[in-house]
Amino acid sequence: MGKIKSWLEELHVKNSRVILSRSKTGTFFIGFFVALMSAFMILPVFYAVVQAFKPIEEVFAYPPKFFVKNPTLDNFKIVLKLAGNLWVPFSRYLFNSLLISVIGTFITVFVSSMASYPLAKGRFPGRQLISTAIVWAMLFNGNVTTMPRYLIIAGLGMIDTYWAILLPALASTMGVFLMRQFVISTIQDSTLEAARIDGAGEFKIFFSIVMPSIKSGWLTLVMFSFQGFWNSAYGNYIYSEELKQLPAVLSSIAAGGIARAGAGSAVTVIMMILPMLVFLVSQSSITETMSHSGLK
Amino acid sequence: MKAKTASLHKQARQSYLSHYAMLSPFLIAFIMFTILPILASMLLGFTDFNMVQLPNFVGLDNYVRLLFDDDVYMIALKNTLLLALVTGPIGYILSFVVAWLINELGRRFRVLFTFLMYTPAMCAAASTIWIFIFSSDTQGFLNDILLKLGVITTPVSWLTDPTYNMTVVMIITIWGSFGTGFLSFVSGLQSLDRTYFEAAAIDGLRNRWQELYYVTFPQMREFLLFGAVQSVSSAFSIAPTITGNPSTNYSTHTLVLHILDHANIRYEMGYASAAAVVLFLLMILAWTATNKLLSKVSA
Predict the structure, then answer these.
(1) CATH architecture of the region A83-285
(2) Does the bond joining A63 to the residue before it have cis omega, within 30 degrees of 0?
(3) pLDDT tens profile A222-236
(4) What is the greatest pairwise CA distance in chain B?
(5) Of B61, B96, B104, B274, which is most buried by a Cβ count within 10 Å?
(6) CA B172 to chain CA mean position, Å
(7) B106 SS3 class
(8) Helix %, strand %, coil % for chain B, to 5?
(9) Is the Cβ of B218 closer than 8 Å to some Cβ of chain A?
């Protein structure tokens, strides 16, 4: 009896759920260790950000200093000034970047999720072959496929149009594989069977059961693909100036020689802002989804 | 009874059709923009394609040259294997452990620490600090400290001395390994089925370490597999340029640098493609081994 009582004390109930009790000391040490790790990880980023606020003589001070003595916004002003003198207005590049990143992310997440469901739960012929092909394709080094892919895109007449960026994005192997793993580990076959017996079609099941259950999966994929689209210049495919995106124009601003070193750092900081916001929004929307275990 | 089986068959056939329909946008793009280019590169591996003239079929010449007539390739192969076998497992395990530890903290801390750990992956310029840390003169951060402590008497060329630069590349690689895999672990841990943890707690698990081993690990299997593919593919694709390209005596030359060198500088696309195919086979081997190991551990 005493034994039962002692393990009952180890369990504690939180929000009407039984969970294993955690020792406070353990949590403290875990927090301490993770904080140390994060500090180690963030320092180089911090240094890169500080660079952007240094006046030019501090950027080239030797030995380099970790902190800035006279912080200035000059580097950002230079970028703004140069951006104001462009042949194509700066807002156009920003618009292009936003357009491609938002549409591209939406397409990638939607198409990947939709493909992942049959790959995870379907019983059709070819399923195993496709899954293996996806993993193997991720293991093939992209540097030698650039040219054949360019020829295919050119052959389809898509060079210098946004199709050259958006259509290949449908084939996000990483996205499909990630979503497939989410479907396998969060959705039980019994839930799907029950829905089928109730007469739900596969598309209905996908939209009303699968998509809500793998929310933390697609929130993560939103992050990955937004970051990818936002940071790519697609220089091979797009040559019309008015179709180019931010990375193209910002890297040419930063590439203006030694005098632009500070501006280069400012560009890095500017480009980081939006992916970071997307990251924070998507990560904080991932709440514990442990409640939906289907049949109860 | 017969009517019921017939309707079940019909349902199954319909679900086939719907499943193919769901798969098709991805599949068509995948074949067009991924599979075809890969097959084309594999074919180019049997030619002498120089990107100007039409390719000529040369049989296995490229592979023979790779394996028997390219000393630099052999160095690159050795370096790649060493880098992959050291940084791959370390980065992978570290990503999982840190993701799990972060998950043990509350939601606010989880978002904060995940953000801090992942930020380097969002800021390409962050890696420039390593040049300053490992700078070869007396002012370099590491040299400065070691000189003051009296550990060394003359500054060390961390980046160009073949005795040290491999270790430097490993450190930087491990620092950079909190990427896609890490983030998938963090969100995967969030989506696990709570009921298993409740059941296990009632069944008498004593502490979080037991919970990690008996409940979390098997449940995380799919995410561990995803992370493993990412790890294998990035560990074998390390292309360090901080140590100079080419590095002193090719001391940190890798297969991907070799491929880039032949593809983009020497225009030997056929040869580069053959090298990529060998790298591909190596990665498949590593992936198969990892997969086997994982199914043993998290079964």
Answers:
(1) Orthogonal Bundle (1.10)
(2) yes
(3) 999 999 999 887 877
(4) 90
(5) B274
(6) 14
(7) coil
(8) 75, 0, 25
(9) no
